[in-house]
Design brief:
This protein is 41% helix and 17% strand. The mean pLDDT is 95. It is globular. It has twelve helices and twelve strands. The longest helix is centred in the first third of the chain and has 22 residues. By secondary structure, the protein is an alpha/beta fold. The chain has two domains: 212 residues, 3-Layer(aba) Sandwich (Rossmann fold); 100 residues, Alpha-Beta Complex (UDP-galactose 4-epimerase, domain 1). The termini are far apart. The protein has a seven-stranded parallel β-sheet, with helices on both faces. Strands 7-9-11 form a three-stranded mixed β-sheet. The chain has a two-stranded parallel sheet with strand order 8-12. It binds nicotinamide-adenine-dinucleotide and 2'deoxy-thymidine-5'-diphospho-alpha-D-glucose (DAU). Nicotinamide-adenine-dinucleotide binds next to helix 1, helix 4, strand 5 and strand 7.
């Protein structure tokens, strides 16, 4: 079967990547979607069982940090575009082991940029596109009422955000120097089905269900701006097809919550869904030592993507959170396989038993 286009999606077995792969495989049957993933602890092919047999889907297991492998992959397939999501993504892990973040997030990204540049130069980049998926954490920590705009100066504070900022700079440098046709997005905190239970929401949903402590870092006053993952995937589709080459778009839900307010809302919804007495889950809240260098507030101004490309979130937070809880409750087998019934946050577990 011949396809109109072949698109490489990296990190497609992870949380956001799996939603992007599913959207593209289903929405673009005339495009071949190649999912390249190393299957680290965060990669899980069970996130994609519903589309794994689709005729326009191929999985390739490999490491973006392996130069020879990546060069070979670009020779094997004639990619028209790349949507690059593969990364080490958890801030707490970056505090404990930063080098993995340099290797995958920085070196891996430069490997992909080089391979795309080499493979595409003969065609003078005609019809090609390299889309780099990044985070709002590159802008640093807000302490006033302002928002992150596309031209906000970079000020990364954690090893994770420093590695993502570095990769963003390389992507822009390849556009400036070699005219590689790139687009970038910087998105706020995602939540939804298939998120690895080291991140706040799936970790706390699982702990509430299994009656384990909810480790709240510091006083729980830090603020995050939450977006439903399927809305992020929709935004990626929009920017991949309609974003202007060389441009950056911020993606966010205009949906700020202090951690503790969000956790209290989660506890309330979980009590209702599990048929427990009101206030039961809140008793699990346990304040633990703060994350080192914990960014205080992130908040995205998503006006540009709304005005220029017409993207807005499709679900309210109340709908998204309810859908998310329902998904985890209905997919306990998925969770048990990951946690083996015993997973606790990578970082907080050090403090819980003090
Ligand atoms: P995730 O950790 O759930 O998934 C990452 C995927 O990348 C996994 O499948 C993993 O196996 C794969 N991977 C890791 N190292 C690799 C390597 N060397 N080679 C090939 N594959 C490798 O991450 P996520 O939360 O889905 O984030 C995806 C992307 O979106 C990342 O670039 C992240 O920085 C960005 N992002 C995430 C959020 C969020 O809230 N989760 C928000 C904004 C941006
Ligand atoms: O803003 C986008 C970023 O959001 C992405 O780039 C990252 O890949 C993603 O992991 C996420 O980073 P955060 O550090 O904001 O997410 P996390 O779920 O780890 O934490 C959310 C907030 O909750 C943060 O303020 C720390 C706090 N927290 C987290 C955990 C895991 C707790 O209080 N207790 C916990 O156990």
């Amino acid at each position: 079967m011949s396809f109109k286009k072949t698109i490489l999606i990296t990190g497609g077995a992870g949380f956001i990547g799996s939603h992007v792969v599913r959207l593209f495989v289903n929405k673009y049957p005339d495009c071949q979607i190649v999912n390249l993933d190393k299957l680290t602890y965060a990669g899980n092919l069970e996130n994609l069982t519903d589309i794994e047999k689709a005729s326009n889907y191929i999985f390739e297991k490999g490491d973006i940090a392996d130069t020879a492998y990546i060069q070979g992959l670009f020779k094997k397939y004639n990619f028209d575009g790349v949507i690059h999501l593969a990364a080490e993504s958890h801030v707490d892990r970056s505090i404990v082991a930063p080098m993995e973040f340099v290797i995958t997030n920085v070196i891996g990204t430069v490997n992909l940029l080089n391979a795309a540049k080499d493979a595409w130069k003969e065609s003078k980049y005609e019809g090609k596109r390299f889309y780099h998926v990044s985070t709002d954490e590159v802008y640093g920590s807000l302490h006033d009422g302002s928002f992150f705009l596309e031209d906000t100066s970079y000020d990364p504070q954690s090893p994770y955000s420093a590695s993502k900022a570095s990769s963003d700079h390389f992507v822009r440098a390849y556009h400036n120097t070699y005219k590689l046709p790139v687009v970038l997005t910087n998105c706020s905190n995602n939540y939804g089905p298939n998120q690895f239970p080291e991140k706040l929401l799936p970790l706390f949903i699982n702990n509430i269900q299994t009656n384990k402590a909810l480790p709240v870092y510091g006083k729980g006053e830090n603020i995050r701006d939450w977006l439903f993952v399927i809305d992020h995937a929709r935004a990626i589709d929009t920017v991949y097809h309609e974003g202007k080459v060389g441009e950056t778009y911020n993606i966010g839900g205009h949906n700020e919550w202090t951690n503790i307010d969000l956790i209290r809302l989660l506890c309330k919804q979980m009590d209702q869904k599990l048929g427990r007495a009101a206030g039961t889950s809140e008793k699990l809240i346990t304040y633990v030592t703060d994350r080192a260098g914990h960014d205080f507030r992130y908040a995205i101004d998503a006006t540009k993507i709304k005005n220029e490309l017409g993207w807005v979130p499709s679900v309210t937070f109340e709908q998204g959170l309810s859908l998310t809880i329902d998904w985890y409750l209905a997919n306990q087998v998925w969770m048990d396989k990951i946690t083996s019934g015993a997973y606790e946050s990578y970082y907080a577990q050090q403090y819980l038993n003090k």
